[in-house]
Each structure stands twice: as C-alpha cells, then as structure tokens.
Amino acid sequence: MFRIRRVFDGVLPRDARTVEQVQALLRERFPGVEEKEIRQIPAMLRDPLHHRFRAVLFVAESADKLAGFALMLHVPDVGFCWLDYVAAQPGSAGRGVGAALYDRVREEARFLGGIGLFFESLPADPEFCMDASLRKENRARLRFYERFGVRIVANTKYETPLIDEPAPCPPHLLFDPYTAKKPLGRKDAQQVVRAILERKYGGRCPEGYVDMVADSFRDDPVRLAEPRYATPAPPPAAQVSPQIALTVNDRHEIHHVRERGYVESPARIDAILKKIEPSGLFERLRVQGYPLRHVTAVHDPGMVGYFRAVCARLGEKEAVYPYVFPIRNQARPPRELPRRAGYYVIDTFTPLSRNAFLAARGAVNCALTAADSLLDGQRLAYALVRPPGHHAERRAFGGFCYLNSTAVAANHLSEFGKVAVLDVDYHHGNGTQDIFYERADVLTISIHGHPNGAYPYFSGFASERGEGQGRGFNMNLPLPDGVDGEAYRTVLAKALKRLARFGPRFLVIALGLDTAKGDPTGTWRLTPTDFEKNGRMLGRLCLPTLVVQEGGYRTSSLGPNALAFFRGLSEGTRERTRNMECAE
What we know:
It comes from Oceanidesulfovibrio marinus. By secondary structure, this protein is an alpha/beta fold.
C-alpha cells in the first residue's frame, strides 16, 4: 500500500527529506537530466514567480519511503499544465504507483483548468528514433499514456531535433484531452509550445527554432494521432482526492454526563461524522498515543495529576461536582480529592467522572496526530473531538473542558515555527488565551460573544492584549447578541489582517459551531452559507491548518454547518493555489 500526498515546499524537515529522495530518484531514472535542473527543485517549489511557472510535486510513499513522484508545472499566465517527470522506484512495476500518480496529476490539472495537460514522451517509431532498444522502452511509455486516453499531437514539426545529432530521438508532444473542456485550438497550442520551448529549454533552442515549431501548427483544432500502442480506457469520472486529514476521538462516548439539559453529548460527534465522511473530502488517520509531557507542557502538572487521580478513584456511576472554591487561600488546597475539585475548576457544570480523564486524553492524542500530519506535509487537518478543550486554562478547567487539545497541538507545532490560534467558538477561548498570554511566538485571536453576557463572563474583553513578551499577541473581538453572517465576516476580515501581519507558519482553528442560528448556548444567526464563506476566507490564507472541534450544541445543524465550513476551507485553499499565491 502506498499513499499519495502533495509536497508544497521543502521547508519542514520531513518535506526536505522527501525532496532529497525525489532528487535522488530523478537522477537515477533520468540520467540525462542536468544536475542544475535537479538542484533547483526546492527553489521551484518555494518561488514560482521567479521561474514563471509553479511546480506541483506529488509523491507516493509507503511506510515513509518514496515509492515514486510526479512533478507538474502549472503555467497560469498561459493557462496550461506540463507534466515534467513521473517516476517510480525500480522494482515497483505492477504496484500501480505510476498510474496513481498520473491520476492525481490529471485531477489537479482539471482543477487548475485552462487549455489542458501536456508533456513529452520519446518516440517508438523508427522515423524519429533510430535506436531499437530505446524504441522498445519508449513504446512501453506510450502504451501507458494511451491507456489513459492521451494522444500524440500530429502534423507539426515538434519532433524537429534541437541540434544535429548522429542518432536523434526527439520527443513527441502529448496532450491529455480529458483535462480540457474543449478541443485543442491552434492558437492555444502555439502559446503552449512557445512557453515550453522558451521557459524550459531557453538558450538551447537555435535561432528561429521556436517560431519554426510554433508556426508548424496549422490545423485548427489541432490534429491528434490515433492511438497506436493501447486501447484507451473510458473517460474517467471527475474525482476529488481527500483534502483533509481527519482524526476522531472514537472513545469519546465513554465520557457521558447524562443529566437533563447537559448539551455536551456524544451525539454531537456522530452528527458531524455522518455528514462529512460521505463527502470524500476527508481521509481518516489512525490516532497515535503521545506522552503526557505534551499535556504538562501547557497545563500545571499538579492539575493534570489531580485530574488523573480523582477520575481513577471514581466508580462507574459516580461523579464529583465542585462545591468548595478555596480562592482566598490557594496555598492550602483541600486534602480530600472530592473537596479539592473547586481548587482546579472555574464553574460547577464540568463534573469529574471515571472516564473524563481518558476521554480528554484521547482528544489530545487526536489533536496531536492531526498536528503531526501537517508536519508530514498535509495542508489541512481536522481533529473531531470531545470533550472540548479551549476553556481549560493552565491550572484550571471548566466549560465542559478538561484538557486544552487546541493549546497542546499549537504548542507542539510552535517547535517548528510561529503559530496563530484563531478561536471562532461563540464563547471566549479563555483557556488558550491564558496558556499563551505571555508568549510572542503564538498569536491568539478570539471572536466571541461579549463576556458581559456570554460564558465565561470574566475574560474575553478587548483590553486583554497579552503580558510581558506576549504583549500585543492576544486579540479579543467580542461581539453583541444577534450577529449575522455579514457582520461576522467583517470582524473575521479584521482578525485575518492581524494574522497576516504576524506571518505564522501554522494556523490552528478552534472551531465552534455554536455560532449557528438556533444553537442553545448562543445568540448569533450563522447559516451553512455563512460557514462556507468563513471557511473559504480561512482557506485563502493557504497556511498549513489544523482545525480542532470545540463547541456547537444544536445537533440537527452540526453536520450541515461543519460540512459547509470544510467545503469552504478546502475550496479556499485550492483557489489560492490555482492563482499561484501559495508561495513561501
């Protein structure tokens, strides 16, 4: 089994190693390629404007080993895609690596739109290739492409050798008609040929060569040769590969407070899953286990130890509700564990149960697994978890939250670059703010109901801007009751401007769906259309983005709103990549 993913750049250590493997495989499989061209691949990925085309690199990996790669160039000013190389590791014949890579390239070319997908392949005809051994190998390549419906562009001088050679073997120009919305026109083909010959081959073309080849395209539409080496398969159905890595806390239901009116229920997760999984947008990952040090890096070890110990002592149907709050003497926590609950909690509706710690730990593991998928090259990841976490502070929990999964993941990612946390839950993310309040490497922004009337009531005011080195790196945007989608997006745009000035390497979104119309804990009126627009705005940031589920309690609307948000997030990201604006 292998997995195909896109490498956006070679900045992260994992991607840098992958690019080195791609370069090694390119040297091995295409010994005639100049070393200069191989070495410039990282720069092509990071700086498309300099090279006048944008490199799109897909890799097939099996157990973290490179099985193959495809390097495609997108030329947006002319409007076409060029498949530069596709290669599989020696000995991988029959595994389908090359076919899977080509399918992914074709899907991306269709998404990017324009004239279509072009590339070169060496000829198998004695008229163009005198070497019999080469012709056999070339025939196999042409057979491979013709099975996909790819056609050789005919009746032109594209096969004219660049220079006089004793045994020339100039390439055919190939066109994939299934990536185009209309037949290949003469003017379009001439533009494509000029762009490739001038940008890719540059000074190697003799004087007058480019004009000679371009002018040889006289058929309109351009003539395509009939297949000679294989019978084409039927046209492929349009498909979209999964865009979002998904982790689910599949043991969340062990934490279930069955009191009447307790809205943080297991049904929330099922409602979202049922709607989003059939969309094809998500690829579920196996959740990994992580050491507790990730949790104690953001939470007081005393609080974590207490939480773990008190839960372990409770019976299956027992629960501890805090009823003593020793705020006047924090140096003397109550000795007995049940009475000590108020020492670490900020409200009376976050009970401790036998499985609360285990469920919260599972949520943290989901968030960390999703965060690590970003480090592995994934662009978007979603940790669908409960219990939520953003109200859990460094040394206190509350608001249905026990361990702050969002903060744990953000802190983990901050080891690899600056992180922005955007909390879009209806309720202020007081826990995340508290944890990062004195740090300048993690920007925290929260858009929420004004604390004068919304939980947690004591924080979330605009005047809270951070302290010490973190001064200026916390931004609260409290809003009144009754906000609609348009008013919300005006404030979201303000938040995104601040975020852009910060220049983060990663974005972590604390996603609350309780901003929706009809949510029992909120007063705002956002609809699925609004969630889609909000997601699109965030996707256009084109940052490696982790979304962690927080609140949202109207079960009937959770699924449609979540799906709308992620459709927008995915489309926003892809729109931005289509316009060449995702360069580092």
